[in-house]
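Handoff note, outgoing to incoming analyst
You'll be picking up this chain. Sequence as last confirmed:
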Amino acid sequence: DDWDDEEDGEWEAPMKDNPDFKGEWKVKRISNPGYIGVWAARKIPNPKFVDDNEVYKYDDFSFIGFDL
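Most recent structure output, in case you need it:
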């Protein structure tokens, strides 16, 4: 309450040394002997798959909706 910015300047918090500070924190890395690499999904063949380039086309649009 008795601090005046014009008279005393901008207030700064006092800095105190921390005796427990051991440097910047780094994540601990542990070895993983079972690591195979980056995971990727298996590609399973699908004999019923047919690529249809006209799946999005419609003969008649009965309604059009606007989301405002």
